[in-house]
Specification:
It is built from 1 helix and 12 strands. It is mainly β and 167 residues long. Strands 8, 9, 10 and 12 form a 4-stranded antiparallel β-sheet that branches. A 3-stranded mixed β-sheet has the order 3-2-5, with no helix packed on it.
């Protein structure tokens, strides 16, 4: 009986020159604006490689080849009604042959302090998705009471697009 089991289930290195391979999913996550996103990747490995059990934190994946064009960026420190106003239109371009879902993140200089964040949650056009080989115009127009904060200057430094998923 033992000999039958060895003959049925045994494997000889002479049977094949190819090594057994499998595809595993590697769970990953990252944070943008305090929000956590999962971003799993796959990898082909030998069959004896154990499946990953813990998610790994990674840097947010940027959309490669992404470009942007500032169509309008205006900051009014005092509108005359005790508010300041920020309005902008930024054309975000996806050069890929597939749609992407993500979040645009702006780096701005506010009164000499550089910070990054997404304005999409308050934007009239948030650009959470950009079609293949296409553009989206991130559109923002918000006023804020000068009782909350007084800002004298607001300048755009850079824009990145972080991928949540490839569609």
């Amino acid at each position: 009986m033992f000999l039958t089991a060895v003959l049925l289930f045994g494997c000889s290195s002479n049977d094949s020159d190819e090594e057994c391979m499998k595809t595993i999913t590697i769970p990953q996550f990252y944070y943008v604006n305090g929000q956590s996103y999962s971003y799993n990747t796959t990898q082909e490995v030998t069959c004896d490689t154990p499946e990953p059990t813990k998610s790994k934190e990674i840097d947010p994946p940027k959309l490669e080849g992404f470009s942007y064009e500032v169509l309008k960026f205006e900051f009014t420190p005092d509108t005359g009604s005790n508010t300041s106003k920020l309005e902008f239109e930024i054309k975000l371009t996806n050069p890929k042959n597939y749609a992407v879902t993500g979040v645009p993140v702006l780096t701005v200089n506010i009164d000499g302090l550089q910070t990054s964040g997404s304005f999409s949650q308050n934007a009239s056009i948030p650009c959470y998705e950009i079609a293949a080989n296409s553009s989206c115009i991130l559109t923002y127009n918000q006023a804020e009471s000068r009782d909350v904060v007084i800002i004298d200057s607001y300048e755009l430094v850079d824009v990145n697009y972080y991928i949540i998923k490839n569609n």
